[in-house]
């Protein structure tokens, strides 16, 4: 499956516009930690016990802000993050 980057941009802009129209200025997350499946196990469905990793939304957000602050391109590890793996294949 391929998804056009411009389409992703348009969907995100629409989402942000709808939040703005509804007066939503921040998003409150009630939990920090989540389960993630190790990258090598994400597409291997024959493995009955995939390796689980604990992720942190706070850590993820801080990493994203650092990437933006550095004004550099995102590293390939970031593109393999669970938040992005459904958009991009790991490089």
From TrEMBL:
Protein name, entry field: Uncharacterized protein
Originating species: Bacillus kandeliae
Classification of source organism: Bacteria, Bacillati, Bacillota, Bacilli, Bacillales
């Amino acid at each position: 499956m391929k998804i056009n980057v411009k389409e992703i941009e348009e969907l995100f802009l629409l989402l942000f516009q709808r939040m703005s129209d509804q007066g939503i200025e921040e998003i409150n997350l009630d939990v920090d930690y989540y389960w993630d499946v190790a990258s090598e196990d994400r597409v291997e469905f024959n493995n009955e016990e995939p390796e689980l990793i604990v992720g942190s939304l706070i850590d993820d957000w801080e990493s994203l802000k650092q990437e933006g602050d550095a004004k550099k391109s995102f590293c390939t590890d970031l593109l393999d993050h669970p938040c992005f793996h459904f958009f991009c294949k790991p490089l």
